[in-house]
Amino acid sequence: MTHKNWVGFIVLILLGGSILFGRAMRAQFSHDEHQFVASAQLLISRGLLPYLDYPYFHLPNMVFINSLAVAASDYDFLAVRALGVVWSLGAAAAIYFLTRSLLPLESALLRHLSAFTVSLVMILDPLFISADGRAFNHMLPGWLSLLAFAACRQGLRAGASWKWFGLCGVLSGLATGARASYAVVIVVFAAAIFLLPQARTWRACLVEAGVLGAGAFLSLLPTLALFLAAPERFYFGNYIYIRLNTLYRQAVDYKLAMDLPDKWLFLFQKVLLHPLDIFLYLVFIAVTGMALVRWRRSRETSDPGALLAAGLGLALFASAFAPTPSWPQYFFAPLPFLVVVFVYGLSWLARRKAVYGYIAVGTLAALALASNAAAAARDDLAILLQPEAWLTVEVHQFAEQLGENVPEGKVLTLAPIFPLEAGLEIYEPFTVGPFAWRTAHLVGAELRSAYGIVARRELDEYLAADPPAAVLVGFETEGAGFGPYDKGGLEKPMEDYARSSGFTPQAMAASFTLGPVILWTP
Question: For residues 433 and 3, what is the distance between their CA atoms, to the nearest angstrom?
Fold first, then answer.
């Protein structure tokens, strides 16, 4: 690209990066973030590993990746969220270059305008926002799956090197190691090798599928190593806990999106709320149908990318229904490929007549504005000028305040990020925040010991040999309990322990929680 061609990309990086960073600094705190941040903190501070040393309820790639951010800054929480901005911006950049590559060369203005607009609209999409800004494990695999798509698309072209499939395998394996639901993309890539051939023999397809699998296996070696080191705990964290979480939701009488019909209802009532997302799904259906017709007419000359993107979008859409209950952020996974399919439709329109391309891009931008994108971007940018109001800074200040009140020792809490950022220690069974704690009573005592988790009835016995220096509560106040009979009582056993041990309560200021935070000290 000439220097003029870089202008749109530079503006995207500056503007998009500012929006994404502002979003990460102000996004509401989620207790899901403890698992991803505290695990990285423990790796850096004490060399502890998931499964072996504490329960962990995902595949482990995010632990190692987030630890790089923790090692680079004393602002652990801020650093991990900022690292997430890189993955989000990477996804936008991937869409930018893909759009440029698909639109006709003779329509230079349309290519530049479309690449910038489509990329920016994606990061302003409500489904993107639902998964973005927090220390989750959605954005990294989303970006990696886009890169894997680009590699596979290149490999599917006639005469392309098999090495592209190796790269695709490595990228999709890395994505799977960050979030297990992305394993479906490996299946789609393998199927594409056999179903979307361009002048290929079956032998060549088998070789390419083998290379794809080898690349995925190579990038999943850290996961495999941890599985071999602690198979029982690995199995618990990635399979048994999923079933326990469903039982827990049933026990507390949670009703929303608990079975397949209700999950579909949830999709239309809680997810597809904005014109932009409805439009993208409708375009996805239409363009996928057109891609099938084009492929059937000319399999050897049509670009396989449209059908490949459609397959990835469908597989990731289906994977969003697997967890119980459903949450809006699960439906982020297919979004990048809805956008890719839109870009294919845009390129077909632009080749017919440039004005059709302008209309399509204009429609996308208008629907983004109708979906409150401008207001969201304004709020994300405005917070950049108020660092004292960043939630990530408030978290660090809270940790410093905690460190002043508790100079050393272990803190018993369901919110491990804060004591770890203060340089204190935690109890390993609570590394994942409230999740192991609220389901431990559903497991037998012998299995609890094997899995490294603690139930409420054995808390006093567990702490007897290693009493805490403080007890920190007040982070699980949204009706969370062990059943419908004790809503809001999830932290009560910890409070009871502190009270019976003669600890004294004191209130701490924490603007990022709904209720009062109480620190109990001797």
Answer: 49
Distance of CA 384 to the CA centre of its chain: 23
Instruction: Write out the residue range of the structural domain in which residue 174 sits.
Output: 3-30+88-384
**Are residue 509 and residue 447 in the same domain, yes or no?**
yes
Residue 327 sits at φ, ψ, to 5 deg, of: -135, 150
- Is the pLDDT reported for residue 306 higher than 70? yes
Q: Do 420 and 38 contact (CB within 8 A), yes or no?
A: yes
Q: pLDDT tens-digit profile of 199-242? A: 678 888 899 999 999 999 999 999 999 999 999 999 999 999 99
Task: Give the confidence band of 198 by pLDDT, cuts at 50, 70, 90.
Answer: low
Reported as a single tens digit per residue, the pLDDT across 116-150 is 999 999 999 999 999 999 999 999 999 999 999 99
- Select from 457, 474, 482, 471 the least CA-distant residue to 509: 474
Q: Which of 384, 406, 424 is the last residue of a domain?
A: 384
pLDDT exceeds 70 at position 465 = yes
How many other CB atoms are there within 10 angstroms of residue 446's CB atom? 8
C-alpha closest to that of 461 among 497, 414, 503? 497
**What is the rounded distance in angstroms from the CA atom of residue 69 to the CA atom of residue 79?**
5
Pairing, β 504-508 against β 517-521: antiparallel
Q: Does 238 map to a domain?
A: yes
Dist. CA 118–CA 96, nearest whole Å? 7
CA 277 centroid distance within chain = 19
Strands 504-508 and 470-473: unpaired
What φ, ψ does residue 160 adopt, rounded to 5°? -75, 155
CA distance 375 to 378: 5
pTM: 0.94
Q: How many residues does the chain have?
A: 522
Q: Which of 351, 384, 417 represents a domain boundary (last residue)?
A: 384
Q: DSSP class of residue 334?
A: T
